[in-house]
Amino acid sequence: MIVNINVPDELYREAEEIAKAQNTSVEEVLLSPFADHIRNWQRFQQRAARGSREHFLTVLDKVPDVEPEEWDRR
Hints:
This protein is mostly helical. The chain is built from 3 helices and no strands. It has one domain (9-61).
């Protein structure tokens, strides 16, 4: 599949520099993080499917009900 995207000039120039340094194509430089993002999303979905609300609430019940320290209030 061919997909056209708009890449800011500065970002494209940086991708060209990386491609040259790595002796690869600009397309490969741009596709690599895209593929990583897809794999990370799939891994997140798999982990989410293994979770359960009941288990979450059981663990949450073990957390002390106290006010946060002053330095941790944001």
